[in-house]
Amino acid sequence: MSRIGKQEINIPENVDLKLEPNLVTVKGPKGTLQLIIPASVSIGREKNILTVRVSNPEVKSLNALWGTIQRLIVNNIKGVTDGFSRRLNITGVGYRANIEGKKLVLELGYSHKIDFLIPDDLEIKTEGNNVIVISGIDKQVVGQAAAKIRSYRKPEPYKGKGISYAGEVIRRKAGKQAATASR
User: Fold this and answer.
1) Mean pLDDT for the chain overall
2) Is 91 contained in some domain?
3) Lowest mean pLDDT: which of 27-31, 54-58, 121-125, 142-146?
4) What is the spatial order of strands in the sheet that 31-36 belongs to?
5) Same domain, yes or no: 116 and 149
6) Residue 33 belongs to a domain
7) 65 and 15, same structural domain?
8) Are residues 100 and 156 in the same domain?
9) HSE, side-chain direction, 13 A CA sphere, residue 32
10) Helix 60-81 crosses helix 139-151 at what angle (to 10 degrees)?
11) CA nearest neighbour of 97 among 27, 152, 33
12) For residues 15 and 84, what is the distance between their CA atoms, to the nearest angstrom?
């Protein structure tokens, strides 16, 4: 049995949850999200408690799916009530980010600027020139956008320059000078 899958899901009062045979629609104060449910997973509801079940809990692949679907529903409920956000820090001389209309313009030490088109379901803000805040109701979309922006200039291990997640620890290397100085 899946430890996560068998947990009950509490539905807040300000969330409207609609169950269809292969679709769960979650509507809240921040928006609406839909989740397609595989045929081997069934969802039961009693008042404000939701339970997720699978057709055969002995099959390992269904156990993994059971826990995944349960967490996706929990994330959708949290997304339409509170939302999700991700912070990115930009480190480096001359590295900066600005918003121009529906584009995030990044200057990351290349010979050209990088334009990132902001999707309609995301909100991107900059704090100063070197902090980007990505927020939205879908955790997967927020995380994917943050990973895409970070991929334009990943943090390098010698000086730590690049785009990193807030709280990310960058492993640093000593470099050539430190290696020859110890001899």
Assistant:
1) 91
2) yes
3) 54-58
4) 16-20, 23-28, 31-36
5) yes
6) yes
7) yes
8) yes
9) 8
10) 90
11) 152
12) 16
**Tens digits of residue pLDDT in 24-54:** 999 999 999 999 999 888 898 998 899 988 8
d(CA 154, CA 16): 40
Domain boundary (81, 112, 145) is at 81
118 class by beta-carbon count within 10 Å (0-12 exposed, 13-18 middle, 19+ buried): middle
Domain assignment of residue 129, given as a range: 84-165
The mean per-residue pLDDT over the stretch 166-180 comes to: 84
In this structure, the chain runs to a length of: 183
Q: Is the pLDDT of residue 95 over 70?
A: yes
| Model confidence pLDDT, tens digit, residues 5-15 | 888 999 999 99
- Does this model's pTM top 0.90? My answer is no
Q: 134: alpha, beta or left, given left = phi > 0 and alpha = psi -120 to 50? A: beta
- The residue from 43, 59, 81 where one domain ends is 81
DSSP line for 133-178: EEEES-HHHHHHHHHHHHHTSPPPTTT--EEEETTPPPPP---HHH
In this structure, is residue 58 part of a structural domain?
A: yes
- Flag whether pLDDT at 1 surpasses 80: no
Dihedral angle sign, alpha carbons of residues 178, 130, 96, 105: positive
Q: Which two tokens stand for residue 169?
A: 């620890």
| In a shared domain, residues 104 and 38 | no
Assign 78 to helix, strand or coil: helix
Number of domain units in the chain: 2
In a domain, 171, yes or no: no
